[in-house]
Amino acid sequence: MAKLTLDLHDALDKKIALVEIIPGKGSGVLKERVLKFLQQKHIKPLYHRVEKDSKNFGRIFVHFRF
């Protein structure tokens, strides 16, 4: 199995204002896992807000404050 790592610290260090995560449409299980990950106590302070794309179910935006 392959591994993909998304380190939000890179987004902070490079002052990236928006990260787009595409878990895909599918059954929604992967999207829920991503959202659950983002809600973890040690991850949540790293970003400003999470937006679920209203036009595309399989896309999540993570907004950072700078």
Unreliable spans: none
Helix and strand sequence: HEHEE
Which strands sit side by side, in order, in the main sheet? 1-3-2
The N- and C-terminal alpha carbons lie at a distance of 36 Å
Instruction: Tell me about the largest β-sheet.
Output: 3 strands, antiparallel
Radius of gyration: 12 Å
Total number of β-strand segments? 3
Instruction: Please state the structural category.
Output: alpha+beta
The helix content, as a percent range, equals 10-25%
Number of helices: 2
Structural account:
The mean pLDDT is 90. Strand 2 and strand 3 form a beta hairpin. It is built from two helices and three strands; from the N terminus they run αβαββ. With 66 residues, the protein is of the alpha+beta class. The longest helix is centred in the middle third of the chain and has 10 residues. The protein is globular and about 35 Å long. It has a domain of 44 residues.
Q: TL;DR?
A:
This protein is of the alpha+beta class. It is built from two helices and three strands. The longest helix is centred in the middle third of the chain and has 10 residues, at 29-38.
Tags for this entry?
2 helices; 66 residues; 3-stranded antiparallel beta sheet; alpha+beta
What does the secondary structure layout of this molecule look like, with pairings?
Blueprint: H1 8-13, E1 18-21, H2 29-38, E2 49-52, E3 60-63
Antiparallel strand pairs: 1-3, 2-3
